[in-house]
């Protein structure tokens, strides 16, 4: 399926049903579909051909999301560009992707103006919502003549991996990859009635691709322009939201918000969490205070969203009690995904043994754009290599113990930072944390934890280390405790451990 086919499927269910809602204004499926035709024709009129790369630089906006559908209808390839990136990073991504057209919001015109002179292939610039001297305005861009275009291949998206681990790579995601993701989503989680999906997290990332199963069900997508937790809670109640997604960092903020207890959450069926590990202690709190609706997903850009899944019911035992032993897992491998644990030289490991998590599935990317060496490395031994260290238990629950690069070797022992972070998060004063290794003459690496406290809380470092030691023993107990007002994060909310290491060395 093309991305626009999900819109057309929803339109076939109910043309007059609400499709996109923002700031109290709703567009029906028929209206969004009509606009997608006009956007497609506008792109074709500007010389965009099937297979060409078209970028979107925008904050959460229903018009920008409709442009995604228009790009697909034109047979072109959607290239999401994160507005939180530095100008140089976006320049490098646009050059890597070979984008000939860029659709952007007026608020980002200064950023685009700064880099457009360095991008000779970028010949079409379109402003969504304002007048910019060197760009087409929206109404001038739109073309009333409808033209359906056949794609030249299956590539639907090119997504940057992000620059936190080196030079960004372009991940080629096909329509088949996203169809597999959508099928897994519809198989694995509850969908009763017509869904209402609330998108607060960036539509350039996980929150965006989760829109496609919602469209396939003829559901309504409520788009929040700004990531405000109080507004998020108000939207959940007012729109009777059934499905939503947040990374753990924002869920911790929801749990700390004074409006949570008085918010009506009875419409919720599925509250997805993912993109980073979640504290088992905070997850149990969420199950009690938000409700038995929490639903985990684990994936990566190269295998979007659904390597493993954990539906709301899987958080509980048969007797209705919380299955605490599962809360630190990433669920089970998804129905259309095979997951194994690989040791050295491609050897697959039995349950309980730790190694690299590897995957086989039509979920896995077509490869890295113009980078055959990286593609070959990521697919060695016939499996996609995630770069995550983990194990499968006897019941096929997947446990991710660390990124390979984040393992700390202290006193000759391998310590997985995520295991220590789970123990630190058990402390009632801690809202979030990160564990890193720092050079140390005695230990090789000194286990160090940086914590962000809950509002109004204080922390005695000795109390924290005693708590961790009781749970994990002395080897896995941090030798150094730092308290920061906030932790450095990437554009999608992941803690940047490289910046923490640099600041502390």
Automatic annotation (TrEMBL):
Keywords: Ligase. Pfam families: AMP-binding, AMP-binding_C. PANTHER family: LONG-CHAIN-FATTY-ACID--COA LIGASE, MEDIUM_LONG-CHAIN-FATTY-ACID--COA LIGASE FADD8. It comes from Nocardioides lianchengensis. Residues 15-369 form the AMP-dependent synthetase/ligase domain. GO terms for molecular function: ligase activity, forming carbon-sulfur bonds. The keyword Ligase applies. Residues 419-494 form the AMP-binding enzyme C-terminal domain. The keyword ATP-binding does not apply. This is Acyl-CoA synthetase (AMP-forming)/AMP-acid ligase II. It comes from the Bacteria.
């Amino acid at each position: 399926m093309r991305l626009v086919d999900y819109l057309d499927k929803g339109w076939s269910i109910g043309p007059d049903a609400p499709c996109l809602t923002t700031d109290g204004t709703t567009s029906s499926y028929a209206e969004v579909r009509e606009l997608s035709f006009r956007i497609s024709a506008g792109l074709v009129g500007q010389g965009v051909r099937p297979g060409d790369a078209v970028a979107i630089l925008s904050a959460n906006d229903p018009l920008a999301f409709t442009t995604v559908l228009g790009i697909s209808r034109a047979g072109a390839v959607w290239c999401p560009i994160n507005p939180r990136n530095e100008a140089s990073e976006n320049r490098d991504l646009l050059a890597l992707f070979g984008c000939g057209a860029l659709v952007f919001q007026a608020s980002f015109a200064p950023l685009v103006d700064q880099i457009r002179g360095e991008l000779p292939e970028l010949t079409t610039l379109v402003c969504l919502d304002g007048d910019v001297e060197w760009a087409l305005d929206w109404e001038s861009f739109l073309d009333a003549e409808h033209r359906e275009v056949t794609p030249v291949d299956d590539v639907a998206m090119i997504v940057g991996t992000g620059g936190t681990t080196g030079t960004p790579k372009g991940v080629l995601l096909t329509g088949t990859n996203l169809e597999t993701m959508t099928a897994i989503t519809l198989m694995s989680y509850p969908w009763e009635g017509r869904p209402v999906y609330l998108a607060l997290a960036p539509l350039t990332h996980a929150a965006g691709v989760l829109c496609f199963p919602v469209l396939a069900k003829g559901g309504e997508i409520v788009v929040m322009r700004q990531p405000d937790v109080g507004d998020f809670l108000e939207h959940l109640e007012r729109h009777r939201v059934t499905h939503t997604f947040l990374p753990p960092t924002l869920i911790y903020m929801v749990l700390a918000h004074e409006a949570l207890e008085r918010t009506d959450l009875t419409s919720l069926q599925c509250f997805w969490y993912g993109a980073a590990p979640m504290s088992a202690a905070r997850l149990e709190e969420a199950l009690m205070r938000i409700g038995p609706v929490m639903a985990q997903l684990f994936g990566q850009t190269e295998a979007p969203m659904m390597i493993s899944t954990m539906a709301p019911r899987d958080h509980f035992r048969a007797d209705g009690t919380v299955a605490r032993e599962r809360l630190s897992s990433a669920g089970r491998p998804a129905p259309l995904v095979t997951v194994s644990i690989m040791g050295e030289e491609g050897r697959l490991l039995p349950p309980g043994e730790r190694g690299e998590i590897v995957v086989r599935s039509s979920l896995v990317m077509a490869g890295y754009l113009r980078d055959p060496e990286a593609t070959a490395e990521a697919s060695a031994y016939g499996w996609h290599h995630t770069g995550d260290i983990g194990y499968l238990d006897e019941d096929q629950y997947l446990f991710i113990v660390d990124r390979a690069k984040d393992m700390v070797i202290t006193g000759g022992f391998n310590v997985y930072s995520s295991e220590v972070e789970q123990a630190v998060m058990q402390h009632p004063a801690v809202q979030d944390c990160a564990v890193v290794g720092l050079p140390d003459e005695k230990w090789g690496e000194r286990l160090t934890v940086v914590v962000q406290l809950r509002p109004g809380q204080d922390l005695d470092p000795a109390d924290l280390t005693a708590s961790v030691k009781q749970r994990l023993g002395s080897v896995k107990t941090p030798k150094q405790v730092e308290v920061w007002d906030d932790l450095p994060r990437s554009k999608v909310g992941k803690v940047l451990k490289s910046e923490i290491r640099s600041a502390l060395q």
